[in-house]
Amino acid sequence: MKRIGLLTSGGDCQALNAAMRGVVKGMSESTRDLEMYGFLNGYKGLIYGNYKLLTSADFSGILTKGGTILGSSRQPFKLMRVPDENGLDKVKAMKQNYYKLNLDCLVILGGNGTQKTANLLREEGLHIIHLPKTIDNDIYGTDVTFGFQSAINIACDAIDCIHTTAASHDRVFIVEVMGHKVGWLTLYAGMASGADIILLPEIPYDIDKIVDGIEKRKKAGKGFTILAVAEGAISKKDAKLSKKELKKKMENYTYPSVSYEIADMINKKTGIEVRVTVPGHTQRGGSPCPYDRVLCTRLGAEAAKAIMDEDYGHMIGMVNGKVKRVPLGEVAGKLKMVKPDSQIIKEAKYTGISFGD
Ligand code: F6P
């Protein structure tokens, strides 16, 4: 008899259902005696005891379905040790609900914040398996996270569509891609769609270098320019500010997002009108792409194996192309960022892509 809990936490992405299906399919092949509980809306469900008993039928037909059948919510890690508005000790409550259901293991699907809480629960003695979800691809210890490839496809489609209209009208366009702290999604979507300038949080930009890039293209007879800009792109000037100074700047910030500020700066320096497109949460929506479906089936299968082996406390990741059990304690709290001197950045630059640095 195996009793497992499942929960999906943080911002959603396309392949959460595919991953849960992988775990359940894998376990169903190994044991006939399986009891599954789905906690609703992430850690909230675990804290407040909102769950439902699931059967294999609940995981049927969901390989291609976006979103999450369990619902999700953001429960910041830094508030986990802070009692809720009614004085409830959240960690104690999560442990109580786990033990009340007599679970053998809790399978937690989520990104960085979710992973930190998963590790906290592991340290508290619960049996945990974590599956790395996020369109941001910023989870340390795995080559790739699920959701990333699906989101690249969407962001890339958005830039492709902008490309044709920009070319027709000889316009400068910014497409803002998700990613506040890391630029993987912007880098891949930008490279895949032939963006001319790519701005990432990891490589602070100089507005004059961006203008140079646009003018250089003009001189070469290319009237349009496409910029792929990460939500967290930052200027060299702002990167030098202290946290306090940056906070002060943001208090008086009037632009809807960083792309509008960059558009305004380009306009002021060149007189060129710059259009901004923000695909936003479309990047997290819709069906998972085939790559993510396969990835999730593989990660899910290994998660099931680890549970059958009673080998807990791991993130199931992809390491150098191989599915691997990665100890949670070794990776929780670390961020995988784009390295400005990495091979891919050098190659992109070599083909003429500007990073505005
Ligand atoms: O972490 C995934 C992510 O989609 C980020 O890329 C994005 O900045 C953020 O979540 C958006 O969060 P929310 O859905 O809470 O607006």
Keywords:
alpha/beta; 357 residues; 41% helix; Rossmann fold; binds 6-O-phosphono-beta-D-fructofuranose; 13 helices; elongated; four-stranded parallel sheet; seven-stranded mixed sheet
This entry's quaternary arrangement is single chain
User: How many domains is the backbone divided into?
Assistant: 2
Strands of the widest sheet, in order across it, are: 3-2-1-4-5-10-11
Would you tell me which CATH topology of the largest domain applies? Answer: Rossmann fold
Average pLDDT, rounded to a whole number, is: 97
**Number of helices, where a helix is a run of at least 4 consecutive DSSP H or I residues:** 13
CATH class of the largest domain: Alpha Beta
Question: Given the helix and strand composition, which structural class is it?
Answer: alpha/beta
Q: CATH architecture of the largest domain, please?
A: 3-Layer(aba) Sandwich
> Mind telling me the C-alpha Rg?
22 Å
Contiguous uncertain segments of 5+ residues:
none
H/E series: EHEHEHEHEHEHEHEHHHEHEEHH
Count of DSSP E strands? 11
Q: Hetero groups bound?
A: 6-O-phosphono-beta-D-fructofuranose
Major sheet summary line: 7 strands, mixed
The rounded distance between the terminal residues' Cα atoms is: 58 Å
**Percentage of residues assigned to helices:** 40-55%
Task: Note the beta-strand portion.
Answer: 15-25%
